[in-house]
UniProtKB/TrEMBL annotation:
Entry-linked Pfam families: SBP_bac_1
Identification of the protein by name: ABC transporter substrate-binding protein
Gene3D superfamilies according to UniProt: Periplasmic binding protein-like II (3.40.190.10)
Signal peptide: none
InterPro entries: Bact_solute-bd_prot1, SBP
Originating species: Plantactinospora siamensis
Length: 414
């Protein structure tokens, strides 16, 4: 699986050897169990084998990383390890001079993670590594599809629109969307762009930080056509993506909406959002449908992954800890506990047993390329401007052209 996006260069310090006891401050986004307890057990497991390395584990809400990490990297006291999504975020963070170049420390094992992990490289140097991989697609309720008379998941946008009409006729909310958080909106525009634009156009556009090809405007036109069908639940603009039973994830988990365009992480995300312990058995998954006439490969996947970076505050214990995290044993533990869904280490793929997640994994493995979510692939300020413009478009403001213009203006203003 080839990664469609590339990076640019910067410099950073190499790890220093630990001399004496070390305490690593670790920021991750596992604020709830099981993830919170599992990550603590991973820290405890490493400490048990390396008594001179201790951890101060500090879970943060996912949305806090976009503000707290830049501030921390500008300070004299950044965390030792922090959650890292690679791509443009990582390139932006390099300017702080606080990211550790781990290349020499991990060169003997990082190649085993495969091509998808290269989104955590900048100019061939490793400033982060993924611990899991992600693909975005449609989670759907098999029972609600059956009630609406939908025989099979749609494979084209025409079939998708027909499914929306059938669900509406059956008084079922077709699609749940957490518009309050903005980033779920972006998945729709991003995927239309992945279907409309060729791999070469995507690759060069992200590298040059310019969305100039007409295919990006066409993506907005496709999105406008979708919005005109009114596929989302009532008041979707004020709905959260993942917090509470009324979130978009909660609506699907509780059978209040038929589908949601989200990442593979949605399956464990739903655990605290429903009292139905059998919810997973009622869910299915299908990839984003093909767009008629698009230049993109219809099997290309939008996604990314979760990973970690070490900062210059850390010592060589940090990349060694990441090696432990990427071991088959720990990766299997992460998947089996639903702390991760798709492991970054392919040696742990057998731990994926859920039928829907197996479909996601097969889709990633057979994809001709993985296009990173645009807000991560682009520099942070540009990705944020793009997400804001897409969210405004969902709220009825702007045009297909203004979405592209907003991203290009942010790139010019860097």
């Amino acid at each position: 699986m080839a990664t469609a996006l590339a990076g640019c260069s910067s410099s950073s310090d190499k790890p220093t050897e630990a001399s004496g006891p070390v305490t690593l401050t670790w920021w991750h986004n596992g604020t709830n169990d099981p993830a919170k307890s599992v990550w603590q057990s991973v820290a405890d497991g490493y400490h048990a084998a390396h008594s001179d390395v201790s951890f101060k584990v500090e879970p943060l809400q996912n949305e806090q990383f976009s503000t707290k990490v830049p501030l921390a990297l500008q300070s004299s006291d950044p965390p030792s390890i922090f959650q890292q999504w690679g791509g443009g975020d990582e390139r932006t963070q390099l300017a702080s001079g606080k990211l550790m170049d781990m290349s020499g420390s991990i060169s003997d094992w990082v190649g085993g993670l495969g091509k998808a992990a290269e989104a955590w490289q900048v100019d061939g140097k490793w400033y982060g590594v993924p611990f899991d991989l992600h693909a975005v697609g449609f989670w759907y309720r098999k029972d609600l599809f059956a009630r609406a008379g939908i025989q099979a998941p749609p494979t084209t946008m025409d079939e998708f629109n027909a499914a929306v009409a059938k669900l509406k006729a059956a008084n079922i909310a077709p699609v749940a969307l957490g518009g309050k958080d903005k980033w779920p909106d972006a998945f729709w525009w991003d995927y239309f762009a992945v279907r409309e634009c060729s791999k070469d156009v995507l690759q060069s556009s992200m590298k040059n930080i310019k969305l100039e090809d007409p295919c990006f405007v066409k993506a907005g036109q496709d999105l406008k056509a979708l919005l005109d069908t009114k596929p989302f639940q009532n008041a979707f603009l004020g709905a959260s993506a993942q917090q509470g039973a009324g979130s978009s994830a909660g609506l699907v988990a509780n059978g209040k909406a038929a589908m949601e365009l989200q990442g593979d992480w949605e399956l464990p995300t739903m655990i605290p959002l429903t009292k139905d312990k059998a919810y997973a058995s009622k869910l299915g998954w299908f990839p984003f449908p093909a767009v008629n006439g698009g230049a993109g490969d219809p099997k290309a996947v939008l996604g990314g992954g979760d990973g970690y970076s070490c900062t210059t505050k850390a010592t060589s214990a940090c990349p060694d800890f990441l090696k432990y995290m990427l071991s088959t044993e720990v990766q299997t533990k992460l998947v089996q506990s639903q702390t991760a869904t798709l492991p970054a280490n392919p040696a742990a793929n057998s731990a994926v047993t859920d039928a829907s997640l197996k479909q996601v994994l097969n889709s990633m493995q057979s994809a001709p390329y993985l296009a990173m979510y645009f807000d991560r692939a682009l520099p942070t300020s540009v990705g944020q401007a793009l997400n804001d413009a897409i969210a405004n478009f969902f709220a009825g403001q702007g045009t297909p052209e203004s979405i592209v213009a907003a991203a290009n203006k942010a790139a010019a203003d860097q």
